[in-house]
């Protein structure tokens, strides 16, 4: 994971958390129509965060998959 990936995930999480706080405030104030609209925005942000997390995870795992499928023979055991 690069520093840019980390910053992007942190930013998306902060945005999602802010939308969630707005939803909770609207819900507590009894503003149900607005809260329903806000929960849709919150879920959209959560989806975006999860998709970005999966992308970063896939990029991290991809090189490991290539090395585990390498057909070269294992190195000989070390002798002491």
What is the topological layout?
Blueprint: H1 3-28, H2 32-68
Which descriptors apply to this entry?
80 residues; mainly alpha; 2 helices
Return the average pLDDT rounded to an integer.
88
How helix-rich are the residues, as a percent range?
Answer: over 70%
Structural class: mainly alpha
Beta-strand proportion: under 5%
What kind of sheet is the major sheet?
none
The number of helical runs is 2
- Topology as H/E string? HH
- Please tell me how large the radius of gyration is: 22 Å
N- to C-terminal distance: 37 Å
State the low-pLDDT regions, or none: none
Strand tally: 0
Oligomer: single chain
Globally, the shape reads rod-shaped
Number of domains: 1
Describe the structure.
- There is one protein chain.
- The protein is 79% helix and 0% strand.
- By secondary structure, the chain is an all-alpha fold.
- It has one domain (3-62).
- α1 (3-28) runs antiparallel to α2.
Brief overview:
This protein is mostly helical and 80 residues long. It has helices at residues 3-28, 32-68.
């Amino acid at each position: 994971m690069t520093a840019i990936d980390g910053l992007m995930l942190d930013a998306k999480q902060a945005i999602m958390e802010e939308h969630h706080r707005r939803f909770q405030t609207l819900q507590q104030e009894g503003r149900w129509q607005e809260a329903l609209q806000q929960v849709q925005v919150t879920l959209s942000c959560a989806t975006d965060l999860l998709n970005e997390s999966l992308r970063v995870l896939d990029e991290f795992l991809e090189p490991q998959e290539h090395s585990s499928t390498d057909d070269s023979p294992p190195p000989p055991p070390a002798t002491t």
